[in-house]
Write a structure and sequence with these properties.
single chain; 242 residues; mainly alpha; Ribonuclease iii, N-terminal Endonuclease Domain, Chain A; 2 domains; 3-stranded antiparallel β-sheet; 3 strands
Amino acid sequence: MLSASRKELIKELLLKLNVQADNLELFDEALTHPSFNFEQNLLDNKDYERLEFLGDSVLRLALSSILFDKYTNYDEGNLSKIRSFLVSDEFLSVIAKKLELSKYLKIGKHEEKDGGRYKESILACASEAVLGAIYITKGFVTAKICIKNIYEKMDIDIQNILYSYNSKEILQQYTQKINKDLPEYNIINESGSEHNKIYEVNVVYRGEELGKGKAGTKKEAEKKAAFAAIKKLNLIKGDSYE
């Protein structure tokens, strides 16, 4: 049974999402990291993993519909690239931070000490789990409206998403017009635990560092470094989502 203070916290989050729901226990489940139940020896209690699975599908379907209706001139390839960015852990964690989702998480002490409350992957999973809970309690239409409202409040530059997605290709095309030398990507730093590594990569061309990028995978870090480079070279304008 939820405490009065826990119920108030969940109601506070639902108010931010403009969702009314009576089944607060389901949202408590959506906000519970597996480490919490493990440390509390509550092995029969549910955590956010199943709801995350459902919420991921709800999010993808809702965004597919929203993007399909809004960007009628984009083909399947560009729509897929845009959706891929908008459902990424990176972007979902940005949304979670704006919602202060970490404030509502139940998480184990060990994971807490490891910075779990603010980990990109955990925030993304919890975001999807909350969407799964909204879908179960209110249905797809309400979940889609909630998703649309959340994304409309974000400062999203669709063209920059496409630039970011293709940044390595754009940079390579630019350098090939100059000579046959290719940009070089180097890992300059690794941080975090084994299961939560952050890679910092730079991109160098003809001995000059053009940009840096940080991400949870080498591939994403390289894309960010290339994106920083093509901005520095004035090949595009705009900012990345940090």
